[in-house]
Amino acid sequence: MPRPKKKGAVATPDNKQVSTINIGSFLEENAGDGSQNVSTQDLETPRLKLFHGNGTDAPEDARKADIYNNITQQLWAKDSGVRVIPCAFVKQFTHWKDMEKDGGGFLGAYDASSDILTKTNKVDAKDKLVDQNGKITDEYIRTDGNFFVLFEESAGVWKPAQISMFSTNFKKAKLWNTMIKSQILQGKNGPFNPPAYAFIYRLKGELKKKEQMSWGLWQIELDCQVDNAKILQDAKNFSQSVASGETQVKPEIEERPQDNGDKEESGMI
Question: Is-above-0.70 flag for pTM?
Fold first, then answer.
């Protein structure tokens, strides 16, 4: 005759019953459980960035002009680069105060239709804001070209990211847009310009030097046409997410070009 349970005792599951659960099936059946209230706004879109020598969010083994993912720390050597599919482009004017000044940093953003540049004067390659009396301030406007892409994390695995091109790299944004608009395919009604995500591009880094400073420049190469229907659908969905405002642009803090006096530039590495 079984002994009665003590009052207040908690029954434990049968170990044999627990061991029969197929973990893979269990996780698949409960996919997404616990994240029901997480929206796109609650997620951080990773950035693909060029390493200029002083990025605080870069992998420790990054070398100048290498490309890295600021969230996962995945690193691509500048000469091999990373394959990406452009899905959307957003141009912005971002408002900054000199980082060396008290309260320096990001102050706001204007969309591409803004006339904010008419209120600036070019000083040392920067569009410096002027006050109501025409006096130049320590604030400036930066023109940003923001690309939302799918990047090839590993063979056949594509993930979303944002790439911001500004300052000396803004010319590269214009070049990439020109390449995208120049692609022509033949359709049943004749030639047409396909969506931006119809082609894969390879982004590489180039080390640029001037006097005592050095920094990275984007290099863009056309790779091949996308031939996977699922990837095309994912790219379209990401494009629509940006267009609807569900995925939003976030400005990238500018890193100052680094002095060439470090070990990498002196030939010691």
Answer: yes
| Model confidence pLDDT, tens digit, residues 108-131 | 999 999 999 999 999 988 999 999
Beta bridge partners of 210: 213
Q: Which residues have CB under 8 Å from 160's CB, separation 6+?
A: 45, 46, 87, 148, 149, 150, 151, 238, 247
pLDDT in tens, 172-216: 999 999 999 999 999 999 999 999 999 999 999 999 888 778 889
DSSP state of 155: T
Through-space distance between the first and last CA atoms of the chain, rounded to whole angstroms: 79
**Cβ partners under 8 Å of residue 228, min gap 6:** none
Strand ordering across the sheet containing 67-69: 48-50, 67-69, 75-76
Contact 137, 101 (CB under 8 A): no
